[in-house]
Design goal:
Elements: H1 6-9, H2 24-28, H3 32-45, E1 49-56, E2 59-67, E3 82-84, H4 89-102, H5 112-115, H6 130-134, H7 142-145, H8 147-153, H9 161-173, H10 188-202, H11 206-215, E4 224-225, E5 240-242, E6 249-251, H12 265-268, E7 270-273, H13 274-282, H14 294-301, E8 329-333, E9 339-345, E10 350-356, H15 362-373
Antiparallel strand pairs: 1-2, 1-10, 3-7, 4-7, 5-6, 8-9, 9-10
Helix pairs in contact: 3-15, 4-10, 4-11, 9-10
């Protein structure tokens, strides 16, 4: 899920560091300032575990981690661990669609009747395009598209995931939009529909297409779906935690409630190591890094027209942030047991990562990002 408060508490509210080039610390590989930022944020917020990274156009220049894998234990979290990214998966799903467009297999302007041939589509959807769903401006509301019934029944649904996602498509498109078309309404169902479109185009599950077209070409060998159960070294991994303060509880990744229903995948079930997530974010500092064309990256990162936050395709994308010297791309993700924050400043050639194995970890990841940004001109 994405928390609208993140617009102020993390990506845009990270402070007013002076303008300038990429930080001296990043260029020189000086980790002392970043280590101090991590230590201070961890000491202040006391999450179960907190990991951070700084990425430049050259790659990951610093990473660190504090805390334990499981509340009450003494097994330290490590940089080998995998972290759940929640709704930060959305930017990957949008980019995957862009890759299919570049391959000539998809079309940004394909009508819904073409993407979902054979589905009864209400006339009120006429003129809606796939980008409207990616930008949360199609008129979809999660409360109507999914509701509590979905979350109570989806984990026990025996149908293959593509069939479950198509059932969502039929339910959403078979009736008029319940929200305002063109108005911003954040909804996970939007990306389930995008995932279903990818499945229709390729004839393969979204998970398989992600592996073949995104994870493998980019060398994201730690990437997978759902609650991670083992780290990149094949050993124990951090667990997610629910609750806050004295009510925090560790959740075994083998339990059904350790993640959202897997049908929600295109909206938020990806996990990977911090280093692999850094490799993904580097694409947005390097105009696609050869994996996508610059014009595709521009489409992915340009906010949609209309009222509401400047939301692009899987990213909040304000055009001018003083400390960044230009636009920023930012997003938060959580499945209520983990928390991930990413902030990308293309003009500064720098991106920041903050990850926690605690659903209530937003305060910790926000504090870490603010402190890391504060090192830009230290």
């Amino acid at each position: 899920m994405w928390d609208r408060r993140s617009l102020l508490t993390t990506g845009l509210g990270v402070g007013m560091a002076a303008m300038g080039g990429v930080s001296r610390a990043a260029l020189a590989g000086d980790a002392a300032g970043y280590e101090g930022a991590l230590e201070a944020a961890f000491a202040e917020m006391r999450p179960v575990a907190l990991a951070g990274g700084v990425v430049t156009r050259e790659g990951l220049v610093w990473s660190g981690v504090r805390g334990v894998r499981r509340l009450g234990g003494d097994d330290p979290a490590t940089l080998d661990d995998r972290w759940h990214l929640g709704s930060n998966t959305k930017a990957m799903t949008a980019a995957l669609y862009g890759r299919l467009v570049e391959q000539g297999r998809a079309d940004w302007d394909a009508p819904l009747s073409e993407l979902f041939a054979g589905v009864m589509i209400d006339p009120a959807w006429e003129g809606t395009r796939i980008g409207d769903f990616m930008g949360h401006r199609a008129g979809v509301k999660d409360a109507d598209a999914m509701g509590m019934i979905f979350f109570m029944t989806a984990r026990g649904d025996p149908r293959p995931l593509p069939e479950q996602r198509m059932a969502m498509v039929e339910r959403v498109l078979g009736a008029p939009p319940t929200g305002t078309r063109g108005g911003f309404e954040y909804a996970n169902a939007n990306y389930m529909l995008v995932g279903a479109a990818i499945e229709r185009i390729t004839g393969r599950p979204w998970e398989a297409v992600m592996q073949a077209e995104l994870f493998a070409p980019l060398g994201l060998n730690s990437a997978g779906f759902g609650a991670p159960s083992a780290n990149t070294a094949g050993g124990a991994n951090v667990w997610g935690h629910g609750g806050e303060g004295a009510t925090r509880v560790a959740v075994n990744p083998a339990e059904p409630g350790a993640d959202n229903p897997m049908a929600l995948g295109p909206a938020g079930t990806a996990h990977m190591s911090l280093a692999d997530y850094a490799a993904w974010l580097r694409l947005f500092l390097t105009d696609g890094g050869g994996w996508l064309r610059p014009e595709t990256m521009a489409r992915l990162t340009t906010p949609r027209q209309g009222e509401g936050p400047p939301y692009a395709l899987g990213w909040i994308a304000p055009s001018q942030v003083p400390w960044a010297g230009g636009p920023v791309l930012t997003h938060d993700g959580s499945n209520t047991l983990w928390y991930a924050t990413a902030v990308v400043a293309p003009a500064r050639g720098t991106a920041f990562i903050a990850l926690s194995n605690q659903g209530a970890g937003q305060m910790a990841t926000g504090a870490l990002v603010r402190r890391l940004v504060g090192q830009l001109d230290a």
